[in-house]
Every structure is written in C-alpha cells, then in structure tokens.
Amino acid sequence: MSLIITNGKQVTKDNQLVDVHLKIDGKKIVAVSEQLDFDIADNDQVIDVAGKLVTTGLTDVHVHFRQPGFEDKETILTGSQAAARGGFTRVAAMPNLNPAPDTPEKLTAIQELIDQDAVIEVLQYAPITGNLKSDDLVDMEHMPEAFAFTNDGFGVQTAGTMYLAMKEAARVGKPIVAHTEDESLLFGGVMHEGIKNKELGLPGILNATESSQIARDIHLAEETGVHYHVCHVSTKASVAAIRDGKARGVHVTAEVAPHHLILNELDIPSDDATYKMNPPLRGEVDQAALLEGLLDGTLDMVATDHAPHTLAEKANGFMHSPFGIVGIETAFAVMYTNFVKTGIMSLAFLLEKMATAPTEVFGLTPATVAVDSPANIAVFDLDQAYTIDPADYLSKSQVTPFNGEEVYGMCTLTVFHGEVVYEQK
Predict the structure, then answer these.
(1) 25 and 31 in contact (C-beta within 8 Å)?
(2) I want to staple 27 with a disulfide (CB 3.0 to 4.6 A). Which of 94, 398, 417, 420 is the partner?
(3) Residue 92 and residue 19 share a domain
(4) Average pLDDT over residues 312-332
(5) What pLDDT, on the 0 to 100 scale, is given for residue 90?
(6) Is residue 367 in a domain?
(7) By C-alpha distance, which of 29, 16, 22, 2 is closest to 365?
(8) Would you give the end-to-end CA distance of the chain in angstroms?
(9) Cβ neighbours of residue 363 closer than 8 Å, sequence gap 6 or more
C-alpha cells in the first residue's frame, strides 16, 4: 500500500506555486508530478490536500523536550507530537536535563528513550562541560552520536574553557552551539534593560550580556577553526559581530527565534511571565536588526527555542517565574503571517530558513520533495485564518505570547518516513 498526496501546491525556488502530487512507498518518495500521472491502487491511502502547500518537513535545531528530569513540562513523546503538529519532521533537543547527557552512557540512555517514544526525528545534543556548568569538558571523542555540543541555558563563562572545547570539537568534527550569556553582567536581570523594565520597576538584562560573549567566541572560533553556531540571537550588536565574523571567513552560523523577530519589549503588556524568555524580548532597534540579519543571510535560520513550562510556574511574574515559552506548533504560522503575507519575505525564502538552511548548515540529510528523498512532508493551509488557542496544543505547555492571534499557515498534515504522524481533525 502506498500513500498518495494529491492536489497540492509546491513552491519553486523562484517562488512560484505549481501543482504537485506525491506517491510514497515505505520511507521514500517514489513519484512527484505536476499532473496525476502515476497509478493509484485500490488499497492505496489517498489524501486530497485541496490546494494546500506541500513542502518538505521543517527542521528546528533548538528545542527543549525536558525528558529525563522534567516530565511535568514536556516529554519526548509530547514534544515530538507538538513538533509534528507544527510541520516539523526533524528537531535537535537541548541537553539541560536531569541527568544531563554528559557521558557516553547517559547520552545512549536518552537516545534509547528517543528511539522508543519520538514520532519524528529527534537529534540529541550533548553538553560541552559536565552538567553544563563545570569547566570540565565532556568526552567528546566517545560521543559520536551527539548532534553537537552545547551548554544551552548557560553561557560558557571562561574563555579558556571555550577555547579548549572548540579545539576538541574541531578535532572530532562536531559544532559548538552556544547560548551566549556573560553571567557577570546579569545583575539579577529578568527582562531587557530598556524602556519596559523601568516602567515595571524590574531589573534589566544588558544587551552586552549576549553580544560580548559572541564577540569573544568568534575570535576563539577563528583561532580553532571550529564550526561555531550561535543560539537565539537577540541584539543588534550580536548581529554585527556575526556579520563581521562571516566577512573574515570565520565558520560562524546563527539562528533567530520567531518571538524575537515578531515581538519587542514594548509588546509586554504587564508583569506577565508569558513574555519572559532568555534572551529577553529586546528593543525595537534590536528587532529591526534581527530581521535585517535574517534577510541578508547573517542569521542563517529560524529556530524556535521551544522551552515548555507549566502554567503554574509561569503565574508568578517576571521575578519568580522561569525563562521560556513554547513555539513549535505555531512557528511557521506566525512567521508566514507576519513576514510572507505582508510581503517582507517570500514563501520560498521562509521555507529555506525553516527547512533547507538548517539541514545544509549542519550537514544533515537534505530536505527536498523529490524522488528517492525521505518521505518527510508537511502540508500547510495558507488561505484559511485561524486563531491560536493553547488549549489545542499537543505540547504539555500552553505558555505562548501569541495566544489569541489570528494567523494563516496552519499545518494540516505531517508525514514522517512515510507514516502520517499528524493530521488535523
């Protein structure tokens, strides 16, 4: 029995929508046609997508699935189901877990959980240092299954530790992926140091907390030759440092989150921790620089930083709630609505930043809708508006600043390895 997807639309590299019909056998695409010119057997499963966008599944290199250790917030099962609902067929999961996968044995144990529970491809990061906080490097050489090495949630505080980590990662052929945050510059901050924190009387987080460590790390990456990837860029100075590093030939890549592109500090209505994430929502100047950086290629890709917490945890204001929001179920829709529908970027460009670029930057299996490619497919409804309602989420967490927003681009179908893993009911 084959899976047939009929009457879809596919976007070309020059941003034209053309008809597309797909035939999937097993885990592979076996036919792609503008006309329905292949045979359909009586026992084939046929899904008519009625003019909706058919694309390769999206890739998100920055998610938190919280298992093991924090299963009240998310699990590999619920996180991967949420990803599938957002049109993602591949994600990379951060290692700020309990226990953290900082030894080969712990990493293998998490990989076994992934193999057992994930409904899409989940790649697992390993920490740079023991428990993400020490200055002792993990045994990178004996962790070849690690997607990359990161202490996400914490910055590597000493230049010496980061230098040694980069040297070792370069030797074993793995990227260093950095949450950049100089803790000596935090001063207890809980939101951006700007207009809103003064209005609310809350301690601020300086832009330099992020950008100073990026500047340091780019110099170290230049010395070591490592692939250095920057997580969730949020400031104008950070974009400038990355742009300069690329111009000098440093192997530096970077991501930006939808919430940092769409929102800024002035969108925070009150002392509402629904808007508390790390890095924080920045100033309008930073927001504009992030968009410019994405459009000119300084920022290589969009990544969600899907960071689930319970509603109870987030009900205590900025001072007493954890950093983090969810976003994987709505990422494509909020990006499409805010930037493609408004003419700021093309649909082809958005798909490049959410599907093609992550695979190319990290050397993963190419994401294409083509014969012999993996049958990893997402279908999006670009024409029907819908209202974001966290009650519909498959994630355990409902913490989103986009609650109640009307958007276009709902995912209606996701196929992974030839199996339907999400279908809108």
Answers:
(1) no
(2) 417
(3) no
(4) 99
(5) 99
(6) no
(7) 29
(8) 23
(9) none
Confidence of residue 211 (pLDDT cuts 50, 70, 90): very high
Candidate list 305, 372, 381, 392, residue with the active-site label:
305
Domain hosting 256: range is 57-361
* 383 in any annotated domain: yes
Q: Are residues 130 and 265 in the same domain?
A: yes
Query: Of the candidates 329, 361, 393, which is a domain's last residue?
Result: 361
Q: Which residue has the higher pLDDT, 39 or 322?
A: 322
Number of H helices, E strands in the chain: 12, 20
The count of domains in the chain is: 2
CA atoms in the 13 A half-sphere facing the CB of 318: 24
Q: Is residue 366 part of a domain?
A: no
Pairwise CA distance, residues 262 & 282, whole Å: 11
Query: Alpha-carbon distance 273 to 398, whole Å?
Result: 12
DSSP-derived 3-state class of residue 342: coil
Tokens 């505080």 belong to 157
- Residue 94's Cβ-side half-sphere holds a number of Cα atoms within 13 Å equal to 26
Active site residue 271: no
Shared domain for 242 and 317, answered yes or no, is yes
